[in-house]
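#onboarding

Welcome to the new folks! Below is a worked example of what a typical request in this channel looks like: someone posts a single protein sequence, and someone else replies with the predicted structure as tokens. Don't worry about understanding the tokens yet, we'll cover that in week two.

Example request:
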Amino acid sequence: SKVNIVLAVPGFLIAYAWGFLEDRRPAPVLAFVVGCLMVAFTFEMFRLVELGSLHSYVENSRQVIHFYRTWRTIGGDESTIGNLTRQLKLGLGVIPLLLWVGFVAFERARTPVGHDPERGRLKLSLILLIAGLVHFSWWWTINEAGWIRHLVPGIVYFAVGLPVLASLSRMQLVRYSGLAVFVVVLLPQLGSVREFVPITRPEARLTALQDTASFLNSLDSEGVSLWGCGWWANRDLHLVGDLRFYDCSDQASVASHLRSGEQLILVRSEFFNWENNPNFAALAQQCDTMTLFRSEPFVVCDATPWLKSPTSALGP
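Example response:
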């Protein structure tokens, strides 16, 4: 979900291509391309500096590409329209919503575009709506998880793009009916307010997370490397403790760190071995005999002897 912003690019491409065909001015298109390249260049330079070396940068890029190629959810495809309406608590409210969207699109299609401010708002709504459609198509056809958080950017695109498009209408009915549909869609969400329970004290897992991060930061950073296994690379500890973790299933990376004489520290939590890999399970069981720190659900152990073993084939 971290690179889903790329799904908004088709909307920009269509809008800028439309503008170029109308005005025949390449400057806006060039400014868009240069702006995209500057953002991408700045981000990649940040990654290179943060990772510390070109080798680490290439290794990290390879791992990211491998993740997006191989990531799958456990179970079947949950990205369905029915699941979406249940998570959003739309119910029958989806019917007037779709009717209103169709009405707005029809009314916009038969109304000529006016002065420049209207053209600007039309392009903005076009970018947002195309981005929303592309994002929804990705969520529905490719993403199997069915998690609503993966669709949040697309929902935001629609939530802004549709009102902007409706604001161009010269019919008051479009605007007032839009408010009525908004109320119909909003009412079922009010029940969720009763489910909100304010947190008045630190959660046990948060305390354990902070304690584990403090312990790991106290280790000798020169002679120690931190490891997870598979897709869950202790991202919460990475964020809280500013710690870097390697993947124990990457045999080349394991061998490289072992040659450097490092102590390989395995860190796991309740998310460890999401893949149900028997090799990961065996490693955790063996590593428990050399536990260095434990604060449930986090366990820190010295995995060097087992990762050094020639029989420790931990690939998926």
